[in-house]
Amino acid sequence: MVFCKADQQEWTKLQLILNSYEASSGQRLNLDKSSIYFSKNTSQVAQTSILNLAGMKASGPFEKYLRLPSSVGKNKGRAFNPILDRIKAQMNNWKTNLLSSAGKEVLLKSVIQSIPTYCMGIFLIPKGILGNINKLMQSFWWGINNQKSKMHWLSWKGIGKGKQDGGLGFRDFEDFNKAMLAKQGWRLLINTQSLASKVLKANYFPSGDFLSAKVRGSDSFVWKSITVARPFLAEGLLWKIGNGNSVRVWSDCWLLTPTSFKVQSPLKILSSGVTVNSLIDQDTYSWNLALIQDVFIPEEAAVISKLHISPCTSSDRLTWRCTTNGMFTVKSAYHLQVSMNDSRHGQGSRPPTHGALWKQLWKLKVPSKVKMFLLRAAKDILPTKANLFRRRIVESPLCPICHSFPETTAHVLWSYTAAQDVWSYGSRRLQKCRSEEQPYHELLADQLSLLPAEEHVELALTATELWNRRNKFVFESSFISPLQVSKSVSLRKSEVEELNSQPKKQPFPTQAPVVWCKPPTDFYKINWDAAIDKVNCMVGIGVAVRDWDGLVTTTLRSPKNSFLDPLLGEALAALRAVQLGLELGLHNVIFEGDSKLVVSGINSGTEDWSTAGLIFLDIKKLLLSYHTWSFRHVPRQINVVAHTLAKSSLELGDESVLVEDYPQCIYYENNEDEDDTSILKAYREDGEGINLFVHLDALELLPLCRDDVSPVHLNPFILNDHLIQVNEDEEEEDEEESGEEVDKEDEE
Hints:
The protein contains 28 helices and 22 strands. The chain has 748 residues and is α+β, with helices and mostly antiparallel strands.
């Protein structure tokens, strides 16, 4: 797409440029597919002369460029009508009568909902167009008979709810349109150096930012469309603190305190425009706790003190709080918009209580059409006589089989005599389920929660066959016996089980015990781990540094005031291990930890803007100071020393670093009986007594006790796949005998 003035001289220059491009690239302009669009103030004479020179045709105001309207005027409905035409043409090719409900769901979600997606990412589609799309989808879903839509048993809003809420998850196009436009706003905030960001900034907010830019009546329709999504885009933004220079204390969202994510403390001591870096001690890169406690209320002061500060003085990062990795996704934005709409409209005093039912229903290992039938039965939207009578379609609500009770969903699928005759052929647990009259969704919820998982298939298939038998009797006057229904259920059950059966996995060959290995010569190995104390809301960090002879040279125990997130705790432990190596002046280091997520996050180049992901970025920056390094994942059983240090750190008040010395929880001694072997003993005291740990330089074993502590009793432990059970006795002699038995096993 090229823009120029509408005169012959301008076109001649443009033609020379195009000719030069063709000559240099070897490509040629296709005149049949090219067109010229003239503005309204261009005279007819100028248009004719330029078209004669160019050899092209003139385009109208509603023609497409890359399937998007090239011009959107006042009549926006006419510009977007082709979307409706495409959807109608697609639906006309499908035979509704040959599709099940599950098949219709797949087609609507995978085909129809994807047609307007590309256009929604650029323009705010008029509500009238979106309403017509919803009507077309409703008509297709419920079916059409003689050019008229069949009965809509449930509102489209109810069907559009998520599957966890009893719906089918169809999109609300208005909310989805805003979510797609919010993605463009996110790109303007994050990719500030892109061409689109630079052009829009120069035109609409040259001295400000996207969130504060004003919208004028003369602005383009594209810009107006993008700004529509700003309110809920701002709702999902959250600042992650790096150096604190970009985040305003009182007005930005940076606290992990739903639902505002902003500071609620009254303004005092600090000015209104101050940034977060004023709360940070610039010498230690830690929070100024005394100032924080004076400025903020205790609840917010506790939250702020747990936030991580970048030790590398990285810049603050604007993230998306609705995803685990802090990156914007349209899916998360859509769900945020839906939740905002629900909260704006208010909710009833009785919260929904059927979430467990819908979750179990969609997990059933049965065909999709069976799940769809159970959903309709639980929502009470089956065309039973009672429902038809309520809508004044039939004259009587009585059951067509027993003629004694109203035909409700629970009646036809469970409670009446003919249904109980069928259930009597089922399992004993099904027969013992209560049979009193109650809404079917309550009955189904009780059955799914009480019955074992292997009987859920039989329950679903039997209910489906009972409904098929009822329809066969009503429309064909043919009644199937309970025995035949039971045989049909058994046949279908065997087919479903055959489909669900998977080939048995071959057992893995027995592997040799995993051992801790010494690093190569001139290398150090640093093991790290984290422990969490949920009672006192603390995270403990343990680090052990060993040289190429397997000797422990340094240990670190550090209690940390942080959020009780295992991944965050492991990331902080890895960061402290890297920092400790630099503080000791090490150059060639192998880092080992038992958190696979942390190790993969550090080794991979995937972007992750979560708190743990930003810690990974700091770790990668610090690793540049090493000559040679590697991060490895190891099993817990060979990371025992670091784990013991982490557990022990929870009892400390401050960080403890010992060089060429060992804390009480572990100590080191030479074993002269065996060549090149050393023993590292670790213990941990708890309410049950003393757990014992043993470490050889080539193998971390679990258990021993300190020499200066007499063993009270020894817990069972695993040593090279052998379970050693030490009996507990109150007499001192029996305890000594138990200790001798353990020593004999260790020698072996």
